[in-house]
Amino acid sequence: MELFPSLSFSVLCIQILVGLSKATILFIVASGLTLILGVLRIPNLAHGSLYMIGAFTTYSIATAFSQSNLGFWVALLLAPLVVALIGLIMEQGLFRFLYKRDHLMMLLFTFSFTLVFADLVKLVWGSDYRSLAVPKIFQGSYLLLGMPFPRYNLFLLLLGPLFAAGLWYLTNRTLLGKISRAAAVDREMVGAVGVNVNLVYAAVFVLGCYLAGIGGALVAPTQNISQGMDHSIIIEIFLIVIIGGLGNVWGALLGAVIFGLTDAIGILVAPQFGIVFPYLAVITVLTFRPKGLLKSIW
C-alpha cells in the first residue's frame, strides 16, 4: 500500500514552491532582526510587533486608496516607512541610551514594547480581524506542472532573491555595510577612527525595522491581519536566526528556507502534525550545530 497515495511529484513541487514563497517573508523579517542582533546586540522581541503594525498599516493605506488599482503598491511603499519612523523614535528616544546594558535587561525592555504595541494596535484598529485582497495583477493562478499556483506566491518567489542580493550588496559593498560589520566586532575602535557609531547604530536599527514593515506589508494579502500575529512570527524568526547563526544574514536566509520548506512539506504529508515539522528541523540542526549552520557574529 502506498504510504501517501495523494502525494504526486507535481503536488510535492507546488508545495515546495509554496514553502519557498513563505520563506521569502520569513527571510525579510528575520534579516531585519539578525542585523539588529549582529550589530547592536539587541534581542528585539518587539520586532514581531513592528511586523504586525506593518500589516495593519498596509491594510489602512490600501483601504484608503481602494478606488485606485495602486492601493496595495502605495501601501507597500508607505507602510514600511511608517514602521521605520516608529523604529527611529524608539532608537533615538530610548535604545541609544541602553546599548551597553545586559542582554537580559534588553530582552525584558523590548518585551515591554510588545505589550505597548499590542494595546496601541487594539486602540487604533480594534480587535476585529482585517483582510486585504490580493492586488488585481496577482489575482488568479498559473498552471505549473498541471497544478494551479497563485500568482502572488510567484511574485514572492521572485522577490526573495532580489532582497537577498540587495542585502548582500548593502552589507558587503556599501560604506554603511562595511562600517556596520566593523562596529559589530569592535565599536570602540570604529569610534576611535572618527566614525559616528551612534549614527550607524540608528541607521541599522531603522533598517531592521523597515524590513519588518516590508514583511508585514507583503504578508497582508495572504492571511488575516489580527492581534497576535506578532507572537507567532517572533517565535519563528528567532528560531530562524538561531539556527542560521546569530547576526548572520545568510544564515537567516538558510534558516528561513529550512523553516518554510519543512512547514510546507509537513502540512502536505501529515496535516494534523504539520506545525511540528519546522521545530523538529530546528532541534535537529541545533543538536549537531549548536551555534547555527553558519558563523555566528555573537
Give helix % range: over 70%
Number of strands: 2
* Helix-strand topology string: HHHHEEHHHHHHH
Strand content: under 5%
What spatial order of strands do you see in the largest sheet?
A: 1-2
Describe this structure as you would to a colleague:
This protein is globular. It has a domain of 198 residues. Helix 1 packs across helix 9. The chain has a two-stranded antiparallel ribbon with strand order 1-2. The longest helix has 32 residues. Strand 1 and strand 2 form a beta hairpin. It has 298 residues and is mainly α. The model has no long low-confidence stretch (mean pLDDT 89). The termini are far apart.
Features:
two-stranded antiparallel sheet, 298 residues, mainly alpha
Give the topology, please.
Elements (H helix, E strand, L loop, with lengths): L8 H32 L6 H18 L6 H23 L9 H23 L15 E4 L2 E4 H23 L1 H11 L1 H6 L4 H23 L9 H16 L4 H21 L6 H13 L10
Antiparallel strand pairs: 1-2
Helix pairs in contact: 1-5, 1-8, 1-9, 1-10, 2-3, 2-4, 2-8, 2-9, 3-8, 5-6, 6-8, 9-10, 10-11
Structure in a nutshell:
The protein is mainly α and 298 residues long. It has helices spanning 9-40, 47-64, 71-93, 103-125, 151-173, 175-185, 187-192, 197-219, 229-244, 249-269, 276-288; strands at residues 141-144, 147-150.
